[in-house]
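Last lecture ended with a question: if I hand you only a sequence, what can you say about the shape of the protein? Today we answer it with a concrete record. The protein is 5-amino-6-(5-phosphoribosylamino)uracil reductase. Below, first the input exactly as provided, then the predicted structure, then a couple of comments.
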Amino acid sequence: MAPSNVGFDSFHMLRAAELADGSAGHTAPHPNSACVIARSEKVVGEAFLYGQGTRCAEIQAVEMAGELSRGATAYLNLEPGDCHGDDTAIKALKQSGVARVVVGLQHPLKHHSGKAIAALRGLGIPVDVLEKHGDGTFKEAFRACQEVNAPLLYRATHEVPFSILKYAMTLDGKIAASTGHASWVSSKMSRQRVFETRGRSDAIIVGGNTVRRDNPRLTTRREGGHLPVRVVMSRTLNLPLELHLWDVSNAHTIVMTQRGARREFQRELVTRGVEVVEFDFLTPKAVMDYCYERGFLTVLWECGGALSAPALAAGIIHKVIAFVAPKIIGGVTAPTPVGELGMVEMTQALNLLDVTFEQVGPDMLVSGYLKPIPRMKSPASAYADDPSIADAGIFSSSTVIYFYKSWDPYGAFTNFTAHSIKLPGSSETWKSVEHYYQAQKFSGVEDELAMQAIENIRNAESPEEAARIGRRLARERPDLVRPDWENSKMDVMEEALVAKFSSYPQLRSLLLSTAGCVLIESSPHDYFWGSGKDGTGQNQLGRLLMKLRAAILTENQHQHIQK
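The predicted structure:
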């Protein structure tokens, strides 16, 4: 049934939030955004952001709507802010001729918050923000906008990834029999939902007990789509040498342990491609701090009671999803989802908020939040009404500038942004620097598989998918990598960066604005292009950007002298 005139905004914003959720599981979790263009009750264009570094939803929706966008209303569940310096969404809306824009949620990241709203208003386009009316007429629509970007809101507010504790238990609260046998507590339909939830996560965390007992794979059980990192937490590393998780041909594995634990075992894991991260004190909070630095938005805990209890006690679990199977197994020693929390009275129990119930096959899915979804502390109107300050005070004058994710400050410096490049003398266009770089690994190799890989990388929808194809083939078939790659990869990256920053004036200006600052690609796991976890990495990407910056400044000085 079509909504009444009063309900158009709410109706279309709910659709925008639903669309935005469609990107979950395609590429690594990222801010979820969608655009719906409507004339009264009729939708004339709609689209969502597929992944980091892909075409924004606004451009796609405008293209679908065509001339029908003139005089229409554009509904955005999230204020645009995919990458600093990228104003394509704003330009697309302006050129489309939309008469009005409705934003469900202002961007929670400070360096984006309010800027797009201010820019649109500065161009003469009226902008209404549902967040101002989140407790009234638009409560349901605003709530939907919150939920689809809950990970981003939690990350921005609490400076930790959004963490979900998931488990399946019998009706009498057991996650396994007293013998430890746990296959299967829940139904096939419930397990399929778990696979979908994994695809929405950056990482899946398990403890040593789960690994020893179940030997899990922790995959999404599907072809294509995002593959979350598998994380094993173990202080002693008392783990078997033969496990599914040590096979990293399809998904990456990180072992997090106490410093000095089983050095020989660590070295063996590294030779198999497993990443090992040592902590002075391995705790759930320390792990979440590391995941935050790594840029993770969502972390799924699939651990047993021995690890879930300290995670809950540390306050880093934000949501619980529990599958309750209509089975009774009994057993005094049978394990339960949560270990000892030290509570002696029911009044001490942790209460879930916004609880929902859903039947999944024969099971009941119960979910709820342990902490409310954060709301922005300041209304969007705080500075969105003044376009003159849209670019003021966003960035600090620190002598060191760190960058990593495209939606972070200075994220435009990463190779995973939606900036296509074309090299001088070439007619080929690459969707991103990462697409070009990965394809060049196999350039000139006279092998059908290598040539097919180049085409697959070229056609990959997102930079993440391009990187996955290139890295996997190089790992599995090193004989297909061009012989001079180690000596030429720096030149390949440099020519790609020159093409990128030469093609986009706003990126060039952003780079020049960092004059006098050290640029560091703060990847905690890349010790060649980035700084690594302990800061000892070579930071070659940052070095190339500083070299490029110096060349541009020198060129500008010569041009000034000639004038």
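Comments.
1. The two ends are 67 Å apart (CA to CA).
2. Residues 1-5, 379-397 have pLDDT under 50 and may be disordered.
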